[in-house]
């Protein structure tokens, strides 16, 4: 496993696009959080009760333990960056036909895909780590708080959400094979299509089932913001435990499908 | 005399190779691309230490076969044995391969690309600088692959084949995209590798080169194996002498008296091509025979059937 990851590291360590996108993720994370935090502080200092209520409803709290929930919600919008990274890394193999060369040189087909899946998990882990560090920094900046298990649960849910977003990107990269097209589909699907399909299913079944079935929606609902929670409440009961099981099922699918596909096709 | 020696030498080489073990045993390989039969029940043995030329017109299945050997194409049926065991990823690490176009990470340098290959192959302390020097790319080792010319890319691909000093090498059109100087360099490199006892499998359109270098040949056409064996077996043709004289009619009568005569043909330029049993040609004797019959030859040249002619004869 270490050997496979080392090969992936050799591929990305001098890959400028990787570093640009990763830096953008980190800068955006800290940048958006700083703006959010500044707004939070400003509304509190202004003494405007209506602004404070709106701020805490929309942005959430920056104190422990709420800061973890707030930041994981903000950063879920930034998961497109690691998604783009994995799409580029996957489609590059097809564009440069290096997937063929790797197999010719002696990588097992299964190991080639395993390396990409491992990389996706490591990216998800890195994103979770950065978000957690960010949460600790902003939590400390916002004053005292207390520790609850909700912190760990939020972090875990964010990791699951990251895995789904990044593995979905890997799945698209392997399926579409062209970077521009895969990124276009990934972005439009993530922003619009996944939600629209979930909505349509839910509308016709008069339940929340659509939000359970669609991969990005179900992972988003692990860390729901207050607006979407209210919306789902109107549709019916939504159980996080079931959502978590479905998320794990999607993760398993995104790991098994590429391995099967890559083992059976001509390269 | 010289030709006889050459023939004897080739027969000797053939006999040696017959006793050698096989590196690749390709058994009943079949590949369908939808309704298209890319390979049809092809079985080939590639002896250890041989230089094996894989010939065939475009679309004959050469690249498909090499692709199946290297696991980038999945065979519909059939097996590939490497040193008598099914070829696995570990087995492929011991083979230096250049298939079609060079495939590298464009954003990485030549050195970094070779480092990836060396890591995949599990080569400890790879001599990356050494192989880059061998293909004259050492000066550009830190240049990105995307800045390379086609010839440099091809040379880098050959450098990956040399990494780890593998015993077996597969080249698919190794001189593609190279200028005449580059082609010559690669030819010399292949010859020197062959001298070092490497097994080389080479798919090429350069029949002249294959004829000069290869010890064994297989010819494919539309996925079917037409012929395989030692190049001497395949080239085992009758000797040919091209003759001409001012007294053409008398010469036509005289050629029948040449020892071991088989047949004769009139060539496009009006010369007489005489076929005699292989290894029996005696140009001095023919000259004397003609002279005795009052014929002064203005053309007497020994011809050999080229691999190209055999190839065209088989594939057309």
UniProtKB/TrEMBL annotation, chain A:
Segments spanning the bilayer are: 18-39, 77-96, 117-139, 151-176, 183-204, 238-257
Ordered alphabetically, the record's keywords are: Membrane, Transmembrane, Transmembrane helix
Q: Does the keyword Oxidoreductase apply?
A: no
Pfam families, from UniProt?
A: ABC2_membrane_4 (PF12730)
The organism's place on the tree of life at top rank? Bacteria
The protein depicted here goes by the name ABC transporter permease
The source organism is: Polluticaenibacter yanchengensis
> What is this organism's lineage?
Bacteria, Pseudomonadati, Bacteroidota, Chitinophagia, Chitinophagales
């Amino acid at each position: 496993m270490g050997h496979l990851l080392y090969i992936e590291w050799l591929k990305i360590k001098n890959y400028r696009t990787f570093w640009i996108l990763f830096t953008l993720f980190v800068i955006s994370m800290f940048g958006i959080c700083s703006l959010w935090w500044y707004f939070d502080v400003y509304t509190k200092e202004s003494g405007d009760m209506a602004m404070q209520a709106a701020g805490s409803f929309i942005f959430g709290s920056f104190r422990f333990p709420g800061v973890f929930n707030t930041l994981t919600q903000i950063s879920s919008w930034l998961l497109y960056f690691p998604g783009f990274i994995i799409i580029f890394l996957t489609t590059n193999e097809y564009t440069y036909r290096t997937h063929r060369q790797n197999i010719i040189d002696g990588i097992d087909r299964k190991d080639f895909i395993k390396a990409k899946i491992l990389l996706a998990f490591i990216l998800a882990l890195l994103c979770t780590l950065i978000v957690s560090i960010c949460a600790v920094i902003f939590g400390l900046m916002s004053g005292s708080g207390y520790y609850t298990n909700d912190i760990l649960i939020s972090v875990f849910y964010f990791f699951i959400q990251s895995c789904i977003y990044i593995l979905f990107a890997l799945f698209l990269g392997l399926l579409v094979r062209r970077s521009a097209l895969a990124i276009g589909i990934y972005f439009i699907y993530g922003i619009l299509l996944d939600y629209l399909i979930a909505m349509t299913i839910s509308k016709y079944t008069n339940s929340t089932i659509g939000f359970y079935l669609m991969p990005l929606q179900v992972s988003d609902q692990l860390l729901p913001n207050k607006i979407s929670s209210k919306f789902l409440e109107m549709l019916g009961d939504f159980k996080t435990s079931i959502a978590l099981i479905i998320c794990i099922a999607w993760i398993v699918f995104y790991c098994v499908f590429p391995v099967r596909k890559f083992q059976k096709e001509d390269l | 005399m010289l030709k006889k020696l050459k023939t004897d030498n080739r027969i000797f080489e053939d006999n040696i190779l017959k006793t050698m073990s096989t590196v690749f045993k390709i058994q009943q390989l079949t590949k369908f691309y939808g309704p298209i039969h890319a390979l049809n029940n092809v079985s080939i043995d590639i002896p250890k230490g041989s230089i094996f030329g894989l010939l065939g017109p475009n679309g004959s299945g050469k690249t498909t076969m090499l692709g199946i050997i290297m696991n980038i194409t999945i065979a519909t049926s059939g097996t590939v044995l490497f040193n008598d065991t099914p070829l696995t990823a570990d087995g492929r690490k011991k083979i230096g391969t250049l298939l079609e176009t060079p495939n590298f990470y464009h954003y990485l340098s030549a050195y970094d690309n070779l480092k990836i290959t060396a890591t995949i192959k599990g080569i400890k302390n790879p001599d990356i600088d050494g192989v880059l020097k061998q293909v004259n790319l050492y000066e550009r080792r830190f240049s990105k692959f995307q800045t390379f010319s086609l010839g440099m890319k091809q040379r880098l691909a050959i450098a990956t084949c040399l990494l780890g000093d593998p015993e077996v090498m597969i080249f698919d059109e190794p001189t593609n995209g190279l200028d005449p100087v580059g082609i010559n360099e690669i030819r010399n490199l292949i010859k020197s590798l062959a001298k070092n006892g490497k097994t080389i499998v080479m798919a090429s359109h350069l029949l002249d080169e294959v004829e000069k270098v290869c010890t064994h040949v297989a010819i494919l056409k539309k996925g079917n194996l037409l012929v395989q064996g030692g190049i001497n077996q395949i080239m085992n043709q009758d000797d040919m002498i091209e003759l001409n004289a001012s007294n053409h009619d008398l010469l036509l009568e005289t050629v029948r008296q040449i020892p071991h005569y088989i047949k004769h043909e009139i060539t496009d330029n009006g010369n007489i091509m005489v076929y005699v049993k292989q290894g029996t040609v005696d140009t001095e004797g023919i000259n004397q025979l003609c002279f005795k019959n009052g014929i002064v030859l203005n053309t007497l040249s020994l011809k050999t059937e080229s691999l190209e002619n055999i190839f065209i004869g088989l594939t057309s």
